[in-house]
Automatic annotation (TrEMBL):
InterPro entries: ClpP/crotonase-like_dom_sf, Pept_S49_SppA, Peptidase_S49, S49_SppA_C. The chain crosses the membrane at residues 20-44. The keyword Membrane applies. This is Signal peptide peptidase SppA. The gene is sppA. The keyword Ubl conjugation does not apply. It comes from Natronomicrosphaera hydrolytica. Residues 141-292 form the Peptidase S49 domain.
Amino acid sequence: MFFHRDRPGSARLAIRRQAWLRLVLGLVCMTLWPGLVGCGPMMFAVGVAPGDQRLEQTTVLSDGGFRNDRIAIVDISGMMLNAEQRGLLQQGENPVSVLHEKLQKAAADPRVKAVVLRLNTPGGTVTATDAMYREVQRFRRETGKPVIALMMDLATSGGYYVACASDHIVAYPTSITGSVGVLLQTVSFKPALERWGIELEALTSGKNKTAGSMFETLTDEHREVLQRMVDDFYQGFVDVVRSARPTMDDETFALVTDGRVFTGSDAAALGLVDETGDLYDAFARAKSKVNLDRADLVIYHRPLRYAGSPYSPTTMAGPHEPPVDRTQINLLQLNVAGLPGFADAPVGLYYLWRPDMQ
C-alpha cells in the first residue's frame, strides 16, 4: 500500500483504521471459528466464492489388497426437507439433492458394488420422504446394486419409510425407529387475540380455505378435511411398510404401524428390521450380498470436509432439526419457532417423530 505526500492526513488515518479493523476481525474469526464449526482439523480458505464443490471420495476402511471393489456409505442425516438447510457461517445443503448426487456417484462408479445407506433422522416432510424413498428404489432398480440400511440414533417415521426401500435393514440395539404415521401440527392464537382485543379478518374464496390457520379455530369441517389428508398419507406409509415386510403377521403389523417407537432390539424381535448390529456388520452384510471377500469402504464428502473415519460427517449441514421451541411475543413481533408451518420448517404434513411437538 502506497501513501502519497499530498494525501490529506485524515485519509491516511481512515486507511490505517480500516487496516486495523480488518486485522481485529480476522483475529476474532480465527478465535471463534472452532466453536462455530466444531472440533477437528481446521483449514483456512481465502476467496470470494466456492470453487468446485463436486463430491470427493475417501476410503475410511479397507480389508487390504490392491484396487479392491468398493462399498459406498451414503448418509441421510437430520430433517428430510426438499429445501436448503443453512448453518451459521456455512453453506447449507438440500437433503433430497445431496442423496440424489451421492447415489448418482455410486451408480457411475463400476468399482462400487453396494451401498450402505446410513440413517440418522427423525423423518421429514411427506413429499421429501417419498422422493428420497423413490431415489433409493430407482438406484437399486437401475444399477442392480444392493442397498443395506444402517440405523444410527434415529431412523423414525420418514427415516423408517426410506429404510423400507433397501434390501436389508441393520439397526444398532440402541437405535430408535418406528413411529409409522403422519403428523399435521396446528395451533390457534385466535382465543388469545380475542382476549387482547385484536380482531383479524381474512377474505377467502371458500369456507375451507383457512383450515389449519393459526388465526382461526379449527371447525369440525376443517378437521374432517385435514384428517382425510392425514389418513390418505398414512395409508401410503402403511403400504410401503407392508411391501417391505410382506411376511409379518397381521397382529404384529397392526402393532408396529400404530405410531409407537421401538428400540433397535425390539424392532428386530418384531421383524421391523432384519438384524441388530453396527457399521462393521452393515459393511460385512453389503459384501456378502455381492459375494466379496474384501472391499474398501468409501465415504462421499464435499471438498475441504475432513473424513478421517467411517463416522465422519459428510455434508456441510445446517440445523436440520428445528431449534428448541421458543415463543417470543412483542408489541410489533410474533415469532414462533420450532413448530412446523412457522419459522423453522415448511408448512405441510410430516412423517416425523418429535415428542416435543406432539
